[in-house]
Amino acid sequence: MLKKTINGCLFLSIIVAMALVVASCGTAPNTNSNAGKNGSAEGAVSSNQQPAETVELTISAAASMTDALTEIQKAYEAANQHIKLSFNFGASGALQQQIEQGAPADLFLSAAVKNMKALVDSQLIDANQQTNLLKNELVVVVPADSTTPIDNVADLTKAEVKTLAIGIPESVPAGNYAKEALTNAKLWDALQSKSVQAKDVRQVLQYVETGNADAGFVYKTDALTSDKVKVAFAVDAATYKTIQYPIGIVKATKHAKEAEDFYTYLQSQEALDVFVKYGFSVSNQ
């Protein structure tokens, strides 16, 4: 009887000892639980890793680039989820003045070289961080239902054309190009009495779309965005300076790397294909 009791106690002791060994093994630290293959730290910081902070880039861009940049924005933000692009569209001259006065901007996309040059000359944009990206064409549009035959700038003097919309030449590049073309045709002064000036090229387009103007000078790219207007004629390219769209990084940017990344992306084939889709052509510098 005593022997059986001793054997039972011994068996129970062995079971308890084995349980303790197993328990101690189960609490041993697993030094590889967060490591990737070959002991790398890839994927290691999971629950404690903070998501990348969202960086908002402010881009001051010519109004005529609105549609193309809106499409580019969707693609770029989808591929770079920590980046938010905020566009300030307007007349290039007005945008230039805003930057000169200290308005926040990371990049400047102009519809005229002179506005970019002014910022480079005032050392607000580095000459090595700006480039001519695109080209455009100047056209005259009329309401889609217009029956007045207008084939050239001389036809703008017809009595049927009661109101002619032009961007403010001092601040709107399209207006300046229009003034140059009309001056070369010796028609600028003759058309002043029927001209109405707009704050940017998109407002010119709106005036014609709504019938508040019988004709207007816009870019080819603007004309392609609306089914409420039609192109009456393309303005003779020999009568105005080549329309170049330079882009540049503003020195005052607080997000230099992110601004440079987007600046580089705008010059990529993927982005250029979008611009071409909306009627721009690629600049040859």
Automatic annotation (TrEMBL):
Check the record and name the PROSITE patterns matching this protein: PROKAR_LIPOPROTEIN (PS51257)
InterPro entries according to UniProt: ModA, ModA/WtpA, YvgL-like_PBP2
Q: Which domain of life is it from?
A: Bacteria
Q: Which residues form a coiled coil?
A: none
The region annotated as signal peptide is 1-19
Keywords assigned by UniProt, alphabetized: Metal-binding, Signal
What is stated as this protein's family in its record? Belongs to the bacterial solute-binding protein ModA family.
| Name of the protein described by the UniProt record | Molybdate-binding protein ModA
